[in-house]
Write a structure and sequence with these properties.
By secondary structure, the protein is an alpha+beta fold. The chain is built from ten helices and nine strands. Residues about 1-5 have low confidence and may be disordered.
Length: about 325
């Protein structure tokens, strides 16, 4: 989520008995970096005129060398504080519903959570090294909540227990999308490891549903009130499916090879263009594997799909 960071603001007052703290879960957007939804924490206290959203998903494209750091996996995010109204306006403008779960906290726990959020939003504390699966806008609220509760949380929600990172990610990038195909190319065997329990909570929807069915060790529900529904992920149209695109590519390559065979001349420019693309892809993979800290990047068999189609189509030209 992009917003102008506003970290470092001070705590205005102690919370009143009427205060409440809730988890906000935002539905996915159209841009790739919004496809997974978003998580934030709301602190509402009408007696003290407090209605703040603490947002661990703030970053700015204006940061120097942002894209270079992003490729390296060294993107710094910030915890910022903004008014609830301004936070909601952005999602209303993009027609993205926001679910709110009011947390079942004692007055002391509310004070502790609010104080921890304010402390983390100070300039010396607000930045953190973002990691898509291990340290993000969903894992941070979860861990700070668990720290304040100082209790053993358990949930009856199992979700896609035992599925892999790849399967989770495919669900949100939409099965068949070209984003899914691109992720398949750079995510290798590490993305196929099954995950379970708290490992799933790097996804905002999983955290929302997990907390909705979570209790403390004495059986007290973690969520006092809140109606939530699973995200609705729009399907990919058949003509936009990457598998259809590869089929078109295979037919086109076969047609070129048949044409070349009939005229006894090879269209070398087609091969040269593809070889350049393979070289760029190989260079990107080598960089990501050896010079970045992205946790799921490695070489997998999917990276050879397009070269295999290319090779099989060219066999038509050399076949006798």
């Amino acid at each position: 989520m992009w917003l102008q960071p506003v970290c470092g603001q001070e705590q205005d007052a102690r919370l009143s008995p009427a205060a409440r703290i809730s988890l906000l879960t935002c539905t996915p957007g159209n841009e790739l970096y919004t496809r997974y939804g978003h998580t934030a924490i709301r602190v509402y206290d009408p007696a003290n005129r407090i209605d703040w959203v603490f947002n661990y998903g703030m970053f700015s494209f204006e940061d120097s060398n942002f894209y270079w750091h992003f490729v390296q996996g060294q993107t710094w995010y910030e915890l910022g504080r903004q008014s609830y109204r301004s936070f909601m306006e952005e999602y209303h403008l993009t027609s993205r519903p926001v679910a709110e779960q009011i947390l079942n906290l004692s007055p002391y726990e509310r004070e502790q959570l609010y104080a921890a959020l304010v402390e983390n939003a100070r300039p010396e504390n607000c930045k953190y090294l973002y990691n898509f699966v291990f340290d993000n806008c969903a894992t941070r609220p979860y861990h700070i909540l668990r720290q304040v509760l100082n209790d053993t949380l358990q949930s009856t929600y199992t979700g896609w227990e035992g599925h892999s990172y790849r399967e989770f990610i495919h669900h949100y990038t939409r099965h068949g999308s070209w984003a899914e195909f691109g992720i398949n190319l750079v995510f290798g065997y590490k993305a196929d490891r099954p995950i379970s329990g708290e490992q799933r909570l790097f996804l905002p929807e999983e955290l929302m549903l997990w907390l909705q069915h979570a209790t403390r060790s004495d059986g007290t529900p973690v969520v006092a009130y809140g109606h939530v529904e699973p995200f609705k992920i729009a399907p990919v149209h058949w003509y936009a499916d990457w598998r259809f695109g590869l089929l078109v590519f295979a037919l086109a390559m076969a047609a070129v090879s048949v044409y070349d065979r009939r005229r006894f001349r090879r269209s070398r420019w087609v091969d040269i263009v593809l070889y350049i693309l393979y070289g760029l892809m190989a260079a990107l993979l080598i960089f990501l594997i050896f010079f970045s800290i992205h946790p799921l990047v490695s070489i997998g068999w999917r990276v050879f799909i397009i070269p295999a189609i290319h090779l099989c189509a060219r066999l038509i030209y050399i076949w006798h």
